[in-house]
């Protein structure tokens, strides 16, 4: 979950936008037992998104997702992911992303910032795209992160649980009128 999140949410107008918690989420996928992918989501996205598509360097993002909302459509697995073997949600309930800078090249964007999972913070670069309607701006981006870099999961062999987690962040903000 390195270059997730977390994060791919960003840019639009000079006005602050409100994150639409019902439509925003982090989707993830990891190889399990070397033959299938386990997918899931983490929701309850909170924070601030101050975006300016014309001047992305003046934009900033400070966003968290609540790890207790993890959902892989398997309650037993979800409970295991929350315990001390993985996310330790009794100590660390959120994954946090704080942007440092946003870059634009043609119609492509990249947010550079710090991703914190549990007690580990790493710098990440997350490419993303923007989809804008009259009332919302949606930021979709993602990256592949190594779970071991964030102390998530015991260092099992790559055969049991893959190290690389593919992450897609969908952050929907409502335009303030």
Q: What can you tell me about this protein's structure?
A:
By secondary structure, this protein is mainly β. It has one domain (16-174): Lipid/polyisoprenoid-binding, YceI-like (Lipocalin), CATH 2.40.128. It has one helix spanning 75-82, and strands spanning 16-19, 25-32, 36-42, 46-50, 60-66, 94-105, 108-117, 120-132, 136-146, 161-174. The model is unreliable at 1-15 (pLDDT under 50).
What secondary-structure arrangement, pairings included, does this model have?
Blueprint: E1 16-19, E2 25-32, E3 36-42, E4 46-50, E5 60-66, H1 75-82, E6 94-105, E7 108-117, E8 120-132, E9 136-146, E10 161-174
Antiparallel strand pairs: 1-4, 1-10, 2-3, 2-10, 4-5, 5-6, 6-7, 7-8, 8-9, 9-10
Q: Which key phrases capture this entry?
A:
177 residues, mainly beta, Lipocalin, 8-stranded antiparallel barrel
């Amino acid at each position: 979950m390195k270059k997730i999140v977390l994060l791919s949410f960003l840019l639009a107008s000079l006005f602050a936008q409100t994150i639409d918690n019902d439509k925003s989420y982090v989707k993830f996928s990891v190889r399990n037992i070397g033959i299938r992918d386990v997918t899931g989501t983490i929701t309850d996205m909170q924070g601030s998104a101050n975006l300016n598509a014309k001047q992305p360097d003046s934009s900033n993002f400070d966003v968290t997702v609540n790890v207790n909302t993890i959902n892989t459509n398997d309650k037993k697995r979800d409970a295991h992911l929350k315990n001390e073997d993985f996310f330790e949600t009794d100590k660390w309930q959120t994954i946090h992303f704080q942007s440092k800078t946003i870059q634009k090249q043609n119609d492509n964007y990249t947010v550079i910032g710090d991703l914190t999972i549990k007690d580990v913070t790493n710098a990440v670069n997350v490419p993303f795209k923007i989809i804008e309607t009259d009332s919302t701006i949606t930021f979709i981006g993602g990256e592949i992160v190594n779970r071991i870099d964030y102390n998530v999961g015991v260092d099992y062999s790559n055969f049991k649980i893959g190290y690389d987690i593919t992450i897609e962040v969908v952050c929907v903000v409502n335009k303030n009128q």
